[in-house]
């Protein structure tokens, strides 16, 4: 894959899913379609909530959280006042839930966030928060089924441990392609991309890149 594709700056590696607005790499798309069919046989409607996300979209999310115009949560999903935190502390708080632009697994066309719209009660909005997928949550039956079945289709949960990045039971990764992308992404590649772009906290981010990779990217 070209470096620009790893960084979310090029979309030539993507093909569309059946669901409008969603894209993955072709091999990951085919594996997900097979997973969807198996889920349907078990009574679930496995749907993407988010798939490919480009660099500019990730940059808008990052800058919004950094400047306090988007919600920023702590490790327990409680609101934080971004502007009360030092810039390094703010960077760590953002990275708990949102990737640094250029490093998001959603850039690669290998990862997607999933849910079952038929399990979401009428009038409720999807939050993509852990409680929705835990024993008392709407999507717990789907999570249980995925835990037992996704691996045979090549998928796994890269953020299951909660080490660095918060546990994300909705985030599926297609291992055969994602591991290759992870190995090819480097701090130097990301530093070059960020150096000329308007990311807030840039000086601290560039100084912290090795730590960021070790703590939040290498899963």
How would you describe the overall organization of this protein?
This protein has helices at about 5, 25-40, 55-65, 85-95, 140-150, 175-185, 185-195, 200-215; strands spanning about 15, 25, 45-50, 110-115, 155, 170-175. Helix 4 packs parallel to helix 8 (about 200-215) and helix 7 packs antiparallel against helix 8 (about 200-215). A 4-stranded antiparallel β-sheet has the order 3-4-6-5. Strand 1 (about 15) and strand 2 form a beta hairpin. The mean pLDDT is about 95. The chain has one domain (about 5-215): Muramoyl-pentapeptide Carboxypeptidase, domain 2 (2-Layer Sandwich). The two termini are about 20 Å apart. The chain contains 8 helices and 6 strands. The protein is of the alpha+beta class and about 220 residues long.
